[in-house]
Amino acid sequence: MLGHIARRLGSNGLKGISPQQLLPKETHRHLQSSLDTIRPISTVSLWPFSSQPRDFSQPNSSWSPEMQKVYDHYYALCDTDTENGEGKKRPWRKLPSYNRSIKYATGGIHLSKLIQAKARLFTRNVKEQGATFEYVVFVNKEEKRCVCVFQAGRLLEGAPGHVHGGAIATMIDTVTGTLAGFLSGPIMTANLNIDYRSPMPLDSVVLIHSALDRIERRKTYITSKVTSTDESKLYTEATALFVSISVGHLFGSRN
Ligand SMILES: CCCCCCCC(=O)SCCNC(=O)CCNC(=O)[C@H](O)C(C)(C)COP(=O)(O)OP(=O)(O)OC[C@H]1O[C@@H](n2cnc3c(N)ncnc32)[C@H](O)[C@@H]1OP(=O)(O)O
């Protein structure tokens, strides 16, 4: 049974410490039954969430009318579920956004307690709505691209009155990484190149367009540009490289 953990996390999983050494008996039993339900990520849906956690990309009262309008535009282009279970096929899909994805992956609830239980996603860890990163990602699987609607809150200041370059880089990494993960499964950012073209005022609502450039072996290349919502103004351009990893990579295994 514990061989499951070693196989799934890689041969050096948790650096040679066995789960029995780390966990009380009861917790270990729960972890084991959770792991038994986890399938290798490559063989399950690339978005393998099971329960109904809070989706942080739902509209809220901090959203400006402009943010809401663009959201409504893309939401109307999305797949829908009807009451008789027959969905309407449309090209776009709204991706949910959680503050701890591992917790909601099938079988991940106990794993999330074992690995840095208090960790939270960088872009979803401020309680006050609208203060930092308000965003929602829509993906178009056929065209292998996505659009993120991003409203930059006042706590993201860099140059006075304007959004910090690191906050913009964070959003580009997040959006391009989301697309790469959607298309290629588990990945990590290997390279991110950013050209800042115009300063972005705080409270701006912008679009982050990202598209697949190419996939070569384990490498997924994504291009990205940040524009005003009417696309007349260019704020930022970027290219990103993501490398596919095994889950064990995060625990020190090279397999
Ligand atoms: C929902 C929110 C989504 C958020 C997404 C955000 C994701 C992140 O921010 S991840 C955090 C930041 N990134 C990291 O910490 C990654 C640190 N780096 C690493 O772990 C490793 O270097 C890693 C995984 C990128 C590559 O290592 P490894 O798996 O050993 O791959 P390796 O064999 O060296 O390289 C594979 C290929 O990629 C290429 N490559 C690797 N790194 C780079 C690089 N920096 N530049 C160009 N090419 C590279 C190699 O040349 C090789 O190419 P080829 O197939 O042609 O031979």
What is the helix/strand order?
Answer: HHHHEHHEEHEEEE
Q: What is the CATH level 1 assignment of the largest domain?
A: Alpha Beta
The beta-strand count equals 7
Do you know the CATH architecture of the largest domain? Answer: Roll
Q: Report helical residue fraction.
A: 25-40%
User: How large is the count of helical segments?
Assistant: 7
Strand order of the largest sheet: 1-2-3-5-6-7-4
Low-confidence stretches: 1-45
- The percentage of residues in β strands lies in 15-25%
Compounds present?
octanoyl-coenzyme A
User: Domains counted in the coordinates: how many?
Assistant: 2
Distance between the termini: 20 Å
CATH topology of the largest domain: Thiol Ester Dehydrase, Chain A
- How large is the radius of gyration? 20 Å
Catalytic activity: dodecanoyl-CoA + H2O = dodecanoate + CoA + H(+); decanoyl-CoA + H2O = decanoate + CoA + H(+); hexadecanoyl-CoA + H2O = hexadecanoate + CoA + H(+); (9Z)-octadecenoyl-CoA + H2O = (9Z)-octadecenoate + CoA + H(+)
Domain Thioesterase: 161-231
Membrane topology: Peripheral membrane protein
Subcellular location: Cell projection, Ruffle membrane; Cytoplasm; Mitochondrion inner membrane; Mitochondrion intermembrane space
